[in-house]
Design brief:
Oligomer: single chain
Number of domains: 1
Structural class: alpha+beta
Distance between the termini: 28 Å
Order of helices and strands: EEEEH
Number of strands: 4
Strand content: 25-35%
Radius of gyration: 16 Å
Shape: elongated
């Protein structure tokens, strides 16, 4: 709990070991990012099966996903203000 009604923030790290670690942290108060931090299990991707161009696209896809979530949150907030 503690994650309800908060804005998630995703950080994707690409260690040399090949593990893709996605860290999602969110906070009820903008100044505190420690109220709810979730470390998703690292997913091992085999570079042989995944083309290089898609590896380059992964960070872009992650950024797009976060951007879409932020747009949805902003729409909800503006609806609340109008209502």
């Amino acid at each position: 709990s503690g994650c309800v009604g908060t804005r998630p923030k995703f950080v994707v790290t690409f260690p040399a070991s090949g593990d893709y670690i996605i860290t999602a942290s969110s906070s009820a108060r903008p100044g505190l990012s420690t109220s709810c931090i979730v470390n998703y299990q690292a997913i091992r991707l085999t570079p042989v099966k995944v083309p290089e161009f898609s590896l380059l696209l992964l960070p872009l896809i992650a950024m797009l996903a976060v951007g879409l979530m932020r747009i949805r949150n902003r729409r909800k907030e503006s609806m609340r203000k109008m209502g």
